[in-house]
Amino acid sequence: MPRKIEFYDTTLRDGTQAEDFNLSVEDKLRVAQKLDELGIDYIEGGWPGSNPKDARFFREVREIKFKHAKIAAFGSTHHPRKRPEEDTNLRALIEARTPVITIFGKSWDIHVKEALKTTLERNLEIIEASVAYLKPHCEKLFYDAEHFFDGFKENRDYAVATLKKAREAGADVLVLCDTNGGTLPHEIVEIMREVKKRLGKGVSLGIHAHNDTECAVANSLMAVLEGAVQVQGTINGFGERCGNANLCSIIPNLLLKMGYEAEAKKNLHKLTEVSRYVCEIANIPHPRYLPYVGRSAFAHKGGVHVSAVMRQPRTYEHIAPELVGNTRRILVSDLSGRSNILYKAQQFGIRLETDDPMVTKIVEEVKKREAEGYQFEAAEASLELLMYRLIGEPKQYFELLGYRVFDMQNPEEGHPLVEATVMVRVPPGVGEVEHTAASGNGPVNALDNAIRKALERFYPQLKEMVLEDYKVRVLPGSPGTGAMVRVLIFSRDQQDRWGTVGVSHDILEASCKALVDSLTYKLFKDRHKKKS
């Protein structure tokens, strides 16, 4: 009978410790929902006792209904000179009101003496008291044994003693952490076996590996083979220094190649989408050479490889890319992408048969847009509109005839005064022309306000819509200020959230394209809901 494994994602906490990787509260909430769609079992939201941003996340995440995932709050054992009930860190974990709490404690005697500045005996008391105090306040409590493998190598008796105290106090899973990332796979095997022998039957172990020796994925897999029931990691391996164990490699390895079962197996086709989504939200390029989910993971270029793959994909592919939501790319032809388009069409409610010529037309248009710099992973509203336009829907609700943006310094206020003027025609081609202006907090906000002001007389439902977030990325190519830019806009109304994208050499034009798509999508989806 296949063994079950649980996936614990710490992108929102450990991942954000990576250089140049930052997420706002709104970003973290969106990523959490995407991880839930994938079927991740536990999502670590942050450290509520460490900063106001994480505290706000835990307040707002309570309003979200997750299909499967449980949110975890992260923190440390209590201060050596305090009792658990006096410790603000432990109180913050309880006040976060999450179903899962994860705390870490010291396993390495050098950390106890040098970092905590306390005795080995006192550290054991701290671990036991912290776990026992928190246990009644959550459904599950996980204990992260920080620096466990380094601690075990130097003082195995003490390292195991810390685990025993956490287990006796009620920890549901003891997570062994390779915090410095210096342990090798054969050492993981040896230490896991010794730990199980010393703890006896009935203990649940987990693994939390860092990637400083490029072994985090391998170490995680070996730990599971040795009995770990929980794997901690991050999407794309983001994390401090060289990163954490990459769940985008661990999940398919365990589920497709090693025979393990998990909720994520039902949604494995969303893995590539989630991987790219996290990068888009963090406003950083997606690493193209990532295994399984990278753009180059199933790319074939010329010669013998292409000839063989076209006859039998297994000749140069270790799995079918569709299993993880990726796409085979034949770099010298246009024969890739049909399955992805068919999947998305079905998701958007568009009926297309495999041999429908429209599939080829959509593939070609998407490839053309991607060559121009578009990416649709976090802008599915733009992709949905594009596909419907190619099959003859939706109608164009308005026509943007032109716009101007004035950016003037206001000496009295001390900040720029921005005004946008727009002309729109409703309906396009033959309708009434509306000419209006509006100010805003920056050029994009002013442009958004002006377009909305012009349209709300015709479409009052646009008043429900809010521009939630705005991101700009300079694309590789032309140097300096002449480069192409990609603008990603997130919008929402009372029922939905959606993303749209625009690309241009001109940042305002790119922004305008994304804004027009966002407004159009609101009108389009409202019309479709009425029809259904």
Total helical segments: 17
Distance between the termini: 44 Å
Instruction: Please name the fourth-level CATH homologous superfamily of the largest domain.
Output: Aldolase class I
Relative strand content: 15-25%
Helix content: 25-40%
CATH architecture of the largest domain: Alpha-Beta Barrel
Strand tally, please? Answer: 16
Q: Please, what is the average pLDDT?
A: 91
Number of domains: 3
Summarize the main sheet. 8 strands, parallel, barrel
Strand order of the largest sheet: 1-2-3-4-5-6-7-8
Name the poorly predicted regions: 332-336
What is the CA-atom radius of gyration, in angstroms?
Answer: 26 Å
Overall 3D shape: globular
The CATH class label of the largest domain is Alpha Beta
Annotate the secondary structure layout.
Elements: E1 6-9, H1 25-38, E2 42-46, H2 52-61, E3 70-76, H3 88-95, E4 100-106, H4 109-114, H5 120-134, E5 140-146, H6 148-154, H7 156-168, E6 173-178, H8 185-199, E7 205-209, H9 216-225, E8 230-233, H10 247-257, H11 271-282, E9 299-300, H12 303-311, E10 329-330, H13 338-347, H14 357-372, H15 380-390, E11 399-410, E12 415-426, E13 432-440, H16 443-455, E14 466-474, E15 485-492, E16 497-504, H17 507-531
Parallel strand pairs: 1-2, 1-8, 2-3, 3-4, 4-5, 5-6, 6-7, 7-8, 9-10
Antiparallel strand pairs: 11-12, 12-13, 14-15, 15-16
